[in-house]
């Protein structure tokens, strides 16, 4: 009987965590950890989990500050928005003075910069988004031919969690994925001339931007992303296309402060 009541109370807190406010500050550490690690924690964004942990620590900083690493180990920082990591996580004094917390922050930054894959950590809840946040891995389908053998120039995505397809964009060149964006190189432009333009498509904002230029106009080529570089692969033997011509994409809007992170081993 009591076990059933405890489970019901646990589920209630998971569903209404945003409404409980100051009541959560009085929770013992094991109980708070049980909520933070639970996939069923109903929060609109992962930032709310960080705020919950930080609010609990600030209620008694002298005693609870050393416990912050245990809490952040169950906050899924890789899915916290980048600007929030800079403005609210990295700039938080309790985090900045805590090397274990900074290691978790560095892990999140590496994940968002495509230097770390979620499989690199083995089974790890931090690398898995909570269902309530609406984030999910998707399958991106690029081009191909339809049933009439006509070439397709569309990019569509499939969400296995919802079972829905969604159209993303039209493309005319080779496509590679890097850091959550689609990079399209070469192909034909809208005047049917060969293109040497490198463009990036952001599926979150559904906007295009020109980010670079190829060594020369090319088509019928493939592209891959390796170690944060975008490398168009031509199928023709051409000595003029060397590694020096590789287009290295400097990621924008990631000017997070490195002074604390670089000091870590």
UniProtKB/TrEMBL annotation:
Signal peptide: none annotated. Residues 1-90 form the BACK domain. Transmembrane segments: none annotated. This is BACK domain-containing protein. It comes from Malurus cyaneus samueli. InterPro entries: BACK, Kelch-typ_b-propeller, Kelch_1. Keywords: Kelch repeat. The keyword Hydrolase does not apply. GO terms for biological process: protein ubiquitination. It comes from the Eukaryota. PANTHER family: KELCH-LIKE PROTEIN 31, LD33804P.
